[in-house]
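Our preliminary data section would be incomplete without showing what the modeling component actually yields. Below, a chain of 132 amino acids is followed by its predicted structure, encoded as tokens that our downstream tools consume directly.
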Amino acid sequence: MRQNRFTHHAQTVLGFTEFVGLTIITIATIIAGIGEVNVMMDAQAVTLADLLLLFLYLEILAMVGVYFESGKLPVQFPIYIAIVALARYLVLDMKNLDQWHMLGVASSILLLTLAVLVVRFGHTRFPYREKD
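Predicted structure:
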């Protein structure tokens, strides 16, 4: 009985900590998004880098939303965010990158894309079974 009570309290503390962390991530992402929109308005221009950054913010918010809704974090979301972040890096720093560095970033994007395909294939071929 004591172990069960401890487990319950531990899960409660972890759940609260998770909630606080996700709330902080959400607020910080919204503030960063508003800041980016202000930068675009001040510059009176929207660049591809700006759009990709806003897309990253939206992906983070979607990931937090899915986690709040289901209590689970699909592994694809962080991979999508990594792909967009690498694409943004490639677009912004293309002039400063040598060919090998560019090839490395592009290869990383390709590997992450293949990882998404493998995960999606695995989910369709070997679906999770719901607990009884």
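Residues 83 and 111 are 9 Å apart (CA to CA). DSSP finds four helices and no strands in the chain. Preliminary results of this kind motivate Aim 1 of the renewal.
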